[in-house]
Amino acid sequence: MKTIQGKFAEAKIYSDTCEDYAAAQIQLLCDHETAENAVIRVMPDVHPGKVGTVGLTMTVGEKLIPYLLGGDIGCGGSCVGFKTKRIEGKRLDAVIWERVPSGAFVRREIHRYGEEAHLEELFCFRHIQEKKAFLSLGTLGGGNHFIEVDRDEEGTHYLAVHSGSRHLGVEVTEYYQNLAYQACRERGLRFFPSFLHLLSRVVNRHDAFKMGHNAEGEPVIWKQVSPSYTVFQEEDSSFYSLSTEYVPEFEAFYRQVVLDIEQSKPLQGPRWKEEPPNRFYVSCIPWLHYRGFSMQMYGDGKLLCPIFTWGKFERNGDKTVMPLTIQIHHASADGFHIAQLFQELQWEVDHFSEEQAGA
What we know:
The structure is a single chain. The chain contains eight helices and 16 strands. The chain has 359 residues and is of the alpha+beta class.
C-alpha cells in the first residue's frame, strides 16, 4: 500500500505500484481545498483518468469538483448470486446480446423499471436529454463496462454487471461546471491574474522550474519563484515589466497583481521593475491565436528559469482553446517535466471554481 500526503488530505492507495501520472492526479486532489478532511482510498486498479484516477473513492463535504464526480453519475456496479449451480453459458450470452443494448445503442422503449429511477428529481433535470436518459436505463454502455458470470470455490455462480453512465454523467457535469464558470465571469475575475496564479502554483511544485543563479553565480533551486511579466501600454504600444511575489492564496495574489498593474499605469515611458533573482518569465500575445511560437535567446546560456508565452483564446466547438508555449534550458528540464507541468496546469484550469477563487 502507498500513501500520498497532501495539503488538505491523505490518500491511501491499495497497491504497491502506481503510475507517475496517476500519482500526480492524486497529489493534485490531496492539495485541493475541496478535499479538506476527506477520506480518500484508491483501489488496486488505479490508473490515470481524464480528471481523477480510475479507482478513486472519497468522502465529500460542502465543496465538490463537478469534473471529478459528475462523469460517473449513473455508472454503477452490481453482483447477484444464482440459486442454480448450472449455467448454460452460450444461451445466457445469446440472451444478453439480444436483450441488453451495449455500446452507443439504447432501448426502443423505456425499461419496465425505468420510472423507478426518478430522474426528474435531479436539480438539473431540465438540462439533460430526458428521452435518451430514460431509454438508456437497462443498457450496458461501452469502454470498460461489462456483464460476466463468476464462480467461487464452492461452485456458486454470480452475475456481475458494471454499467456506464450513458452520457447522463457528462451532461450533469457540464451543467454544474458551466455554472461555476458563469459565477466566475459574473464576479468579474480577470483572466490574466487568474491564469497567472494557476501557472505559478504549478511551477512552484517542481524543482525543474525553480532553478536559477544566486549572487555568486552558482546554480540553485529556489524554495519559491515568482512571475515576472510584461504589461502592454496602449498609448505608445510599448511594454514594461512587473514582478509580483507569489503566494499560494488565490485572493491575495490576484489582488496584488491587479494592484501592481494599476499602480504602474501613472508612470510615463518604458520602465522595468527590479526583478527578484527567484523568478520565471511570462508574456502573452492576446491578439494572436498561434500554433507554434519560438523565442531564440542568445547570451551566455545561463538562463535556467522558464519563459512562458500564451496567445489569444478561441472557442473550438464546446471547448475554449488557448496556445501556451514554454522555453527552458535543457539543463533544467526535458520533455517529461514539461509534459507533467502541462498536464497539471490543464487539471488546475479544469477545476478552477468560484470556491477556489475565494468568492
